[in-house]
Write a structure and sequence with these properties.
Length: 146
């Protein structure tokens, strides 16, 4: 019996190393950086490309009149319009939360959307955003809802 107990005790450390503790604060920092990278990509490569790059294949965005745009390609096409070509957005998450298993996260905060109309007038509006992030198999984070 003692040999069995010793054998089991010898295997326990290897099992516990398989289930590592998740540092939620570290994951929140990772999501905050993903949000920054998303914003910088929108600013440097344009709205359509930024929203395309950070979208999961089955991502959904909700826009004016509660319309839903589904899928990366549809989201990119939605933003390939003259107003979006001369637009940029600024945002910062005020809140970030992570699922217990660290495979989903959500953020919300304030945003400002700025654009130049056909007459050259710069306009902006502000609001609140809500984004849901999903950890992909390759370890990257992509939004599934915005």
């Amino acid at each position: 019996m003692q040999i069995l107990i010793i054998a089991i005790m010898g295997f326990l450390p290897s099992f516990s190393s398989c289930s590592r503790m998740i540092d939620h604060e570290e994951i929140k920092s990772e999501i905050k950086q993903v949000e920054r990278n998303f914003q910088e990509t929108v600013k440097s490569q344009g709205v359509a490309e930024g929203f395309y790059i950070f979208a999961a294949d089955d991502a959904v965005i909700k826009r004016e009149n509660d319309s839903l745009i589904t899928g990366r390609e549809a989201i990119k096409n939605y933003y390939l319009n003259p107003i979006s070509n001369k637009a940029y957005a600024e945002w910062t998450p005020d809140y970030i939360d992570i699922s217990d298993d660290a495979t989903l996260a959500y953020t919300y905060g304030k945003y400002k959307w700025c654009f130049t109309d056909s007459s050259g007038k710069i306009s902006n509006f502000q609001g609140v955003f809500h984004t849901v992030w999903k950890k992909m198999k390759d370890g990257s984070w992509k939004y599934v809802w915005d």
